[in-house]
Design brief:
This protein has about 450 residues and is mostly helical. About 65% of the residues lie in helices and about 0% in strands. The protein has helices spanning about 55-75, 80-115, 120-125, 135-160, 165-185, 190-205, 210-220, 220-235, 260-280, 285-295, 295-305, 310-340, 360-390, 400-450. α2 (about 80-115) packs parallel to α14 and α9 packs antiparallel against α11.
Length: about 450
């Protein structure tokens, strides 16, 4: 499944650690992992102890989360039954986006760890230098997020249940402000170059692989951005820890036009990238890819029309169109994942660079490889169909269901990353080998060419 290793470039400015952090070892003992090696398939299974934190740290971490859970549950039980559901819905709105982002950071760390154990040079694929953030730094960030976000949420529940409404309302506001300040903090701490590279990539429309890759991940987080917009809207209009926000027709309510606009933005950005790619390369594939992202637009806006048209019009006309556009988007996206992003339609299989293995060993490995491919394709198909539910504004009142589907979508994107990066690495390796063979042919022709001078 993985190719040969290539040493990453030394001078790329992307995603390098800040100079003040290269020697920072405060939390290096939190997460123990093996160094990148020349591990190839087949090999002995990688021990989970290589990535597990120390037992003492794990115990303390579990104790902290358990304590926060007990305080939060006790705070919820102190509320009246009529207020409890409404308040939990509001608290869930503020904190579920950050919890999902935390989950995505953990999964990205796992992606990097697997690549580090393999012979895929993800540093070369993303054009990173030798000081780029590894899975250890990514997990360090995720650890702090896993601690800070639940603490803020618990404080919010506790203060509100004990009558401190103003202090409770300030908790999500402080947390959102802190996250924003950390992202734009201009000093050389908190991985300065990584933060600025992320912000630059979000701002620009470029056609490098890293730009495409990040934009694809952002499409899986469209629901997160939509909830962030609603949360910030309520903070700006001072509706935190109140029941004013519950009016669906209010400026920050579930009928707001801002919801479908924020949902569609990641797809519009990705659409523009494809058009820019076609302009620069004249590849027709880019136009078909742009068409794929355009199919998400009617899914989002037809769903939002439920709150702005008559019920009969929605039932008889707009709802069938919404279902049809949702099925079209799901099937088209699934087809593109398998045939283009992963290139599985051509029969590409994992590469096993151990010819000394016995036939029985190779047979077992190939069988396991096929099982992995069947699982990934099947789960990707099912979750692509659930995509419509996540993008539909008129189904947002089922917030627990939408949260679950959004989390599953991130898991789908997590497994998508492995095959997408592997496919890109295969293309880069094939291109490098082709260039080397052409150079060798030219040198051979020069050696065999007849001499023009007499001896």
């Amino acid at each position: 499944m993985f190719g040969s290793q290539v040493i990453p470039p030394n001078k790329s400015p992307h995603l390098r650690k800040s100079d003040g952090e290269q020697g920072n070892t405060e939390m290096e003992g939190l997460l123990h992992s093996t160094e990148p090696s020349d591990l190839k398939i087949p090999s002995l299974p990688i021990s989970t102890a290589a990535i597990m934190p120390s037992p003492i740290l794990l115990w303390r971490f579990k104790r902290l989360l358990k304590m926060l859970n007990e305080i939060g549950w006790d705070s919820v039980m102190r509320m009246s039954v009529n207020l409890r559901d409404l308040f939990l819905y509001e608290a869930f709105l503020y904190y579920n986006p950050l919890l999902l982002v935390t989950m995505m950071v953990w999964l990205w760390g796992v992606n990097l760890w697997v690549f580090a154990q393999s012979t895929i040079s993800y540093a070369k694929i993303f054009d990173l230098d030798q000081n780029h953030l590894t899975h250890r730094e990514i997990w360090k960030v995720a650890t702090w997020m896993t601690i800070i976000v639940p603490i803020s949420m618990t404080a919010y529940l506790y203060l509100y249940s004990h009558g401190e409404v103003s202090l409770a309302a300030s908790q999500p506001v402080f947390l959102y402000c802190a996250v924003a300040l950390i992202l734009i903090f201009p000093f050389d701490i908190f991985y300065l170059s990584t933060r600025y590279y992320l912000l630059r990539t979000l701002w620009r429309i470029a056609i490098t692989f890293s730009d495409f890759f990040l934009a694809d991940i952002l499409t899986s987080m469209s629901k997160v951005f939509s909830d962030l917009e609603r949360s910030v809207c309520r903070m700006v209009h001072r509706q935190v820890a109140t029941i004013a926000w519950f009016e669906a027709d209010s400026v920050c309510g579930s009928h707001s036009i801002g919801i479908p606009i924020i949902l569609v933005l990641p797809y519009i950005f990705r659409l523009f990238q494809c058009l820019r790619q076609y302009k620069d390369t004249k590849e027709k594939t880019a136009l078909f890819n742009a068409l794929k992202y355009s199919t998400a637009v009617p899914v989002i806006f037809l769903s939002a029309l439920k709150y702005h048209v008559l019920p009969d019009s929605w039932t008889n006309f707009y709802r069938p169109l919404w279902l049809l556009s949702g099925i079209l988007n799901s099937l088209y996206s699934f087809y593109w994942d398998v045939t283009r992003d992963w290139d599985l339609s051509s029969g590409r299989q994992a590469k096993f660079p151990h010819p000394s293995r016995t036939v029985a060993d190779l047979a077992v490995i190939v069988l396991l490889s096929y099982r992995v491919y069947f699982w990934v394709i099947g789960s990707n198909f099912i979750l692509r169909l659930a995509w419509t539910y996540k993008l539909s504004a008129h189904l947002r009142h089922n917030y627990l269901t939408v949260f679950t589907i959004t989390a599953l979508e991130m898991i789908r994107r997590f497994q998508w990353v492995f095959f997408r990066v592997e496919n890109e690495w295969t293309k880069m390796s094939s291109k490098s080998n082709l260039q080397l063979s052409e150079i060798s042919s030219e040198e051979k022709d020069k050696l065999l060419a007849p001499s023009d001078h007499n001896v």
